């Protein structure tokens, strides 16, 4: 697995368990990249859905991906605070074409006051049966929901007080 180069723009590809593309973010600036971690940022980037529909993101976002955890975190910087959208999914891989991961439907939305909501449990159950998620994946994902909630409650990683400001300032240096 390769490592993206800091300062480069890459695509992010989200897949479903069956191998079909789910969503593509056209351009994300790499702010930090190691063999285990990628932090990127984008603003008003083109997003293409599996059915070909496209849309443009509305605000700057800091993206956090890791090779050892089964979730990624998108921090959207809005006028009234930072909102986090956390996707339960496989650890990422990077192969020179794009940063890639499997989206497993479950999401956690975190509000600026750090309250949160677990989303899409019905979609997860539907796809788990339809695509035959193995029990081991189900257990891993449920453990990672618990881990993500601990991160939120203890303000770990991207939820820590200065994380977003630090990385957004770095992103602004590239603009």
Automatic annotation (TrEMBL):
Entry's Gene Ontology molecular function annotations: magnesium ion binding; nucleoside diphosphate phosphatase activity; ribonucleoside triphosphate phosphatase activity
**Which InterPro entries is this protein grouped with?**
DUF402, FomD-like_sf, Ntdp-like, SA1684
* Catalytic residues identified in the record: 23 (proton donor)
> Catalytic activity annotated for this protein?
a ribonucleoside 5'-triphosphate + H2O = a ribonucleoside 5'-diphosphate + phosphate + H(+); a ribonucleoside 5'-diphosphate + H2O = a ribonucleoside 5'-phosphate + phosphate + H(+)
Q: Where does Mg(2+) 2 bind?
A: 105, 107, 120, 123
Among Gene3D superfamilies, the record links this protein to: FomD-like
Q: Which UniProt keywords apply?
A: Hydrolase, Magnesium, Metal-binding
Looking up Pfam families in the UniProt record yields:
DUF402
Positions that bind Mg(2+) 1: 87, 103, 107
For activity, the cofactor(s) needed are: Mg(2+)
- EC code: 3.6.1.15, 3.6.1.6
Per the record, the domain of life is Bacteria
Residues making up the signal peptide according to the UniProt record:
none
| Hydrolase is among the record's keywords | yes
**Endoplasmic reticulum: is it a keyword of this entry?**
no
Going by the record, the broad EC class of this enzyme is: hydrolase
Record function comment = Has nucleoside phosphatase activity towards nucleoside triphosphates and nucleoside diphosphates.
Give the UniProt family note. Answer: Belongs to the Ntdp family.
Sorted alphabetically, which NCBIfam families does this protein's record hold?
Answer: PRK13662.1 (NF010183)
Q: What is this protein called?
A: Nucleoside triphosphate/diphosphate phosphatase
């Amino acid at each position: 697995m390769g490592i993206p180069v800091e300062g480069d723009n890459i695509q992010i590809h989200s897949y479903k368990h069956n191998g079909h593309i789910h969503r593509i973010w056209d351009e994300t600036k790499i702010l930090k990249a190691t063999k285990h971690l990628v932090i990127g940022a984008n603003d008003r980037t083109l997003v293409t859905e599996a059915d070909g529909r496209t849309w443009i993101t509305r605000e700057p976002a800091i993206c956090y991906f890791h090779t050892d955890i089964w979730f990624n975190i998108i921090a959207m910087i809005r006028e009234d605070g930072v909102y986090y959208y956390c996707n339960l999914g496989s650890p990422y891989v990077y192969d020179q074409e794009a940063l890639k991961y499997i989206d497993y439907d479950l999401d956690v939305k975190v509000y600026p006051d750090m309250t949160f909501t677990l989303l899409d449990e019905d979609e997860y159950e539907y796809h788990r049966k339809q695509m035959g998620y193995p029990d081991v994946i189900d257990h891993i994902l449920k453990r990672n929901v618990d881990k993500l909630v601990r991160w939120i409650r203890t303000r770990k990683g991207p939820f820590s007080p200065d994380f977003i400001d630090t990385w957004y300032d770095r992103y602004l240096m590239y603009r």
